[in-house]
Automatic annotation (TrEMBL):
InterPro entries: AMPK1_CBM, CRP1_MDG1_kinase, Ig-like_fold, Ig_E-set. Signal peptide: none annotated. It comes from Mucilaginibacter gossypiicola. It holds the Pfam family AMPK1_CBM. One of its GO terms (molecular function) is kinase activity. Belongs to the 5'-AMP-activated protein kinase beta subunit family. This is Glycogen recognition site of AMP-activated protein kinase. Keywords: Kinase, Transferase. The keyword Transferase applies.
Length: 475
């Protein structure tokens, strides 16, 4: 491999690392059983050091300064200089706060990664939570934020690909790099559930070391985590179990692990309001570190965790009202569960809601009303409700039609409802922002009750009415 081709960083398990530091020819990042070791060759180029710092997860360090002997940025980030031998400077950083998996055999990390395929959580299926189950861990989260898929063996084969719902099951993308112990591919994933397989010389195979397999197929399943439950103390406890609304209060499935005096469990947890509690040696307790609690239907007090986006609901006026609530499809239209707080000019509330599209209304002294400040609406069950999209990922725009009385959006994402989502006019175009799942979406605009395809989108396909539907692809 030529020096200028691309930067190569080699991860070794400390227990099997036999290369003396003096033999190093370039900068490296070495993963040990309890620490990361950063080796910087002061003869390296600025580009090489920049790449190394990125792999090590160092954001504030400056390669030029480091090559001049200024290591203050490294030390500020928690790295300690261990030794210096010739042109090689060695720094250590504890591994205890990283969710990394040291390998018995060395393997290569290159800067040639699949940047174009950013994954989509919960696609094709949506889940409340997920915990990985490997006989031997073959998927790793790297310090750089990338996710590494490792296929051990198959060294006699010529080509291996990684394919999954994160790259639309491509048979062209996801080319894996061959190492001395197998094949690797690095991808960028958001937290969520992913299905994947390997394609080795044209043959599809699943991950034989992954015990999680999809019910509808033999696809391997991987969860990228986004939350860690922690319980301090209880040093003498023998067994602690986590249970909650996300796993239907199963008191047997999620066993906490003790690490450094703290009981913890990492998992993927879906956005939303989650109730939970711990079972410590047969005794129920709430989370002492979480002051947000509520009494469950069984009379037991549960801790409450809110994950999602913060949405501010505001209703001006109605200062003479006694009670104002908000209800919508985000809480099954319960009318008296989410109260607003009275302000000088009306009522307001900050609420955490999972990303999605919702209808909602205010309940003013037991009377449902739409949001007078929101021009966008939708119809649910024949009833007009105010419309809100939480963390939208696409904005539909229709230019012109300045004299139209109403414009609505309908598509495969709302079953082509004839009312659809109402669009607002800003003086030059009609717009509405929505959250869409990845994949192909079909849509049309309804201008004063007349269905039209999007004049600003050249992509369309025929439909059963011979009028066509506009086509949109969401990555």
């Amino acid at each position: 491999m030529k020096r200028g081709a691309y930067i190569v960083i080699v991860f070794f398990a400390m227990i099997c690392m036999a290369l003396p530091v003096s033999a190093q020819k370039r900068s490296n990042l070495i993963m040990g059983s309890d620490k990361l070791v950063l080796l910087i060759d002061m003869r390296s180029s600025k580009t090489e050091v920049d790449t190394l710092l990125k792999k090590a997860g160092l954001k504030g360090a400056n390669a030029a300064a480091i090559l001049k002997g200024d290591f203050s940025a490294l030390q500020k980030d928690g790295w300690t200089m261990a030794k210096k031998r010739g042109n090689i400077v060695e720094f250590d950083s504890p591994l205890e706060n990283l969710n990394k998996n040291p390998q018995i055999k060395p393997y290569l990390i290159t800067t040639k990664i699949d940047n174009d395929d950013e994954g989509s959580p919960g696609y094709p299926t949506d889940v409340n939570f997920g915990i990985n189950n490997f006989a031997k861990v073959t998927v790793h989260e790297l310090p750089s934020g990338l996710t590494r898929f490792f296929l051990p063996g198959y060294l006699q084969n010529r080509r291996a690909l990684l394919s999954g719902n994160f790259n639309n099951w491509s048979t062209l993308k996801g080319v894996m790099a061959k190492t001395d112990s197998g094949w690797i591919a690095d991808v960028k994933l958001k937290p969520g559930k992913y299905e994947y397989k390997f394609i080795v010389d044209g043959h599809w195979i699943n991950d034989r070391y992954n015990n999680l397999v999809a019910d509808h197929d033999d696809n391997s399943i991987y969860f990228r985590y986004n939350y860690t439950f922690k319980l301090n103390g209880n040093a003498n406890a023998h067994k602690i179990i986590l249970t909650g609304s996300f796993n239907n209060w199963d008191a047997n499935s999620i066993i906490m692990e003790k690490s450094g005096g703290v009981w913890q469990k990492q998992m993927y947890l879906h956005d939303g309001t989650q109730a939970y509690r711990f079972l410590v040696d047969g005794k129920w307790i709430t989370d002492p570190a979480n002051s947000n609690k509520i009494q469950g239907d069984d009379g037991i007090i549960n801790s409450i965790l809110n994950l999602g986006e913060t949405v501010i609901f505001k209703l001006d006026g109605y200062t003479d009202a006694k009670k104002v609530y908000v209800g919508g499809s985000f809480n099954n239209w319960e009318r008296g569960l989410i109260p607003l707080t009275k302000t000088k000019t009306g009522w307001a509330l900050s609420l955490i809601i999972p990303p999605g599209n919702y209808g909602y209304k205010f309940v003013v002294d037991d009377k449902w009303i739409t949001d007078p400040a929101n021009p966008r609406s939708m119809v649910e069950g024949g009833i007009v409700n105010s419309f809100i999209s939480v963390k939208p990922n696409y904005t539909f725009k229709l230019s012109g039609f300045n004299n139209a009385k109403s414009v609505h959006l309908a598509g495969s994402f709302n079953n082509f409802d004839k009312f659809g989502y109402s669009m607002a006019f800003n003086g030059s175009e009609w717009t509405v922002s929505v959250r869409l799942k990845p994949g192909k979406q079909l849509y049309k605009f309804i201008v004063d009750d007349k269905w039209i395809i999007d004049p600003g989108n050249k992509l369309y396909e025929p439909n059963q009415y011979n009028s066509g539907n506009s086509v949109l692809w969401i990555e």
